[in-house]
Design a protein that fits this description.
alpha+beta
């Protein structure tokens, strides 16, 4: 009887160890959220649908109107939901570091990034609901060309020749970054950066 009991226990243990896992399981239960390469959680779209975020089978063509808009995104007017209606969901949303100096708070702005399009949208820290884009920055990956012929990668000489012909230089940050305005003496609403003699980045803000 003693040996029979041991035999039953042994058979039971072997059965537990060799029981096949169910298809689609790992044998371990986990509540962890899967993370994709961009750092965003994978979301069940059927449970979380934002009708303003759906851009199905649509290729986004990059466009730019100096001092005005990028891809119909207008600084000072366009909300995050309206951005999503145009561009779809962003690759990720980041935030600049908040710093306090002499009682003054700086930083904390939200950065909404569309990497394939080379577009970064900036929302001010105080705009908790991200209701109005403060500025639009275009950088590597952006292939739009303005009506004047301004585009990333063009030579500094050609870029300045076009801008100086029609617009006004308001501030020169050592030649590598400059501010331009549509009207002389006005605050610059267009900032440009150069790198290795070529236009590297451009920002439109209000």
């Amino acid at each position: 009887m003693k040996y029979l009991s041991l035999l039953i226990i042994s058979i039971t243990m072997v059965s537990c160890l060799t029981e096949p896992k169910k298809e689609g399981t790992t044998g371990f239960e986990s509540n962890a959220v899967d993370v994709i390469s961009s750092g965003s959680p994978v979301v069940d779209s059927e449970k979380s649908v934002d009708t303003l975020s759906i851009v199905e089978n649509k290729t986004i063509k990059n466009t730019i109107v100096l001092f005005d808009n990028v891809n119909d995104i207008y600084p000072g007017e366009t909300s995050l939901n309206e951005v999503k209606a145009i561009m779809g969901e962003p690759d990720f949303i980041d935030q600049t570091k908040i710093e306090v100096y002499n009682g003054h708070i700086s930083g904390g702005d939200k950065l909404v990034k569309y990497l394939k399009n080379g577009i970064m949208l900036i929302f001010e820290r105080e705009d908790v609901n991200m209701s109005v884009v403060d500025a639009v920055l275009v950088e590597k990956g952006f292939d739009g060309i303005s009506e004047e012929g301004i585009y990333l990668g063009m030579t500094k000489e050609n870029c300045l020749a076009i801008l100086n012909k029609k617009y006004f230089l308001e501030d020169d940050m050592g030649g590598e970054s400059m501010f331009y305005s549509e009207k002389e003496g006005a605050e610059g609403d267009l900032q440009i950066w150069f790198k290795n003699g070529k236009l590297d980045k451009l920002k439109i803000f209000k």
